[in-house]
Amino acid sequence: MSEYVFSPPPPAVLPVSGQNARFPVNRIFCVGRNYAAHAAEMGAEVDREAPFYFLKSAHAVRQSGAILPYPPGTRDLHHEIELVVAIAAPTFRIKPAEAMAAVWGYGSGLDMTRRDLQARAKEKRHPWDLGKNFEGAAVISALTPARNFTPADQPIRLQVNGGLRQDARICDMVWSIPELIADLSQYYHLAAGDLIMTGTPAGVGAVAAGDQLAGGVEGLAAVELTIGPAE
After folding, report:
1. pTM of the model
2. What region holds the Fumarylacetoacetase-like C-terminal domain (predicted)?
3. pLDDT above 70: percentage of residues in the chain
4. What is the secondary structure of 9-76 as a DSSP string?
């Protein structure tokens, strides 16, 4: 007899570039307003005292190339292209100078957002969960091991139906990767399988059923997504 009341769902996993191995996903930490130009386009300011976060669940993960049905409850689905950092070592209360030792690799990701639900939550000072944490809200490319990629000033771009929507460089981030890892480690025991979506540059916008999204960080695998009809 099974020890479970019902069969546990299979783990969320991501492919690894050039390998047959898979990276199992644990938690997804998302950084808000980490590009000043994006904060400005959303009518907000960057908090220069400390980064802030929201979380996505592992059920939000979809691999690059997925078809995402237009999600329920929204009429304003937005794209946000991001650099994704994959953690592979237990990390707790460290300093930025120590942080990169915890990094397993990197990917390109889409933080899909039900913008109207997020805006409603902001107005009422409610959490952002309905706007940010839903099935298919984290679409992520194959991961590249850290030994094969060094974050610097690489371009980060997104096209929708072949037209350029977002175009920046990852060095434009307000909070660097070591700073983010070190800060999160003050509040969480970071663990293997955790992902950090490091924020999106300016140029976010709405997508509709039938739209084709493609983009990412130069030097990493691209992330691609098709928006399907609503269920």
Report:
1. 0.96
2. 28-226
3. 100
4. PPPPEEEBTTSS-EEE---EEEEES-BHHHHHHTT----SS--EEEEE-GGGEEETTEEEEPPTT-S-
